[in-house]
Design goal:
It is built from 8 helices and no strands. It is mostly helical. This is RNA polymerase sigma factor.
Length: about 180
C-alpha cells in the first residue's frame, strides 16, 4: 500500500498526473491553509475565498497535465488561485470587508495570533492596498515566495516586485502607526 502522507511532492505529482486522485488530494491537503489564507485576503470575504479555492483546485486537477515542472506545483497552484481571485474581484461579487473574526478566520487553532484589535488593524491596512500590492504581499507572506518567483507568476520584473512590496509594506506600516 502506498504511503501518501509521507511521499515526496514530486512522486505525488507524477502519480496525480497519471490520474491518482488520492495523490492529488494529498497535494491539496498540504497547501490548503495557505491557499485559503491567500484567497481570503485577496477577496476579503470568506465565501468568496472558499469559492476561489474550490475553483482553483478543480481547474488544477483538470489541467494537471499542463504542469511542466514538478517542483513548481505550489507556485502553479497559487497562480491559478490568483487568477480565480482576480476573476471573482472583476465580477464584483461582494463588497463586504474581511470577516471580523470567528471560525472562518482561524486557520489552524494552534496558531499564535495577535490580539483581536491588532489583527483587525492589520487586515484593515492590508485592505487599503491596491489589488497588485495585495497580491504581492499575499504571495510573499502567505505563500512564502521570493520576489523572483512572484515576478514570474505576475509576469513582472523581480526588481519591480521588490519595490512594490516595499512600498506596500510601508503603506501598511503607515496605516498601522
Amino acid at each position: 500500500m502506498y504511503d501518501y502522507e509521507n511521499s515526496p511532492e514530486p512522486d505525488l505529482i507524477r502519480r496525480a498526473k497519471r490520474g491518482d486522485i488520492k495523490a492529488f488530494s494529498q497535494l491539496y491537503a498540504r497547501i490548503y491553509k495557505d491557499l485559503y489564507r491567500f484567497a481570503l485576503y485577496m477577496t476579503r470575504h470568506t465565501q468568496d475565498a472558499e469559492d476561489a479555492v474550490s475553483e482553483a483546485v478543480l481547474s488544477a486537477y483538470e489541467n494537471l497535465a499542463g504542469l511542466r515542472k514538478e517542483d513548481s506545483f505550489r507556485s502553479w497552484m497559487f497562480t491559478i488561485l490568483n487568477n480565480c481571485c482576480k476573476k471573482m474581484l472583476r465580477r464584483g461579487r461582494r463588497e463586504a470587508a474581511l470577516p471580523e473574526g470567528g471560525a472562518h478566520d482561524r486557520i489552524g487553532e494552534n496558531a499564535h495570533e495577535p490580539d483581536y484589535a491588532q489583527w483587525h488593524d492589520v487586515r484593515r491596512a492590508f485592505g487599503e492596498l491596491d489589488e497588485e500590492e495585495r497580491m504581492i504581499v499575499a504571495f510573499s507572506v502567505f505563500g512564502g515566495y521570493r520576489s523572483e518567483e512572484i515576478a514570474q507568476m505576475l509576469d513582472r520584473n523581480a526588481a519591480t516586485v521588490r519595490s512594490r512590496k516595499s512600498r506596500a509594506l510601508e503603506k501598511m506600516r503607515s496605516a498601522l502607526s
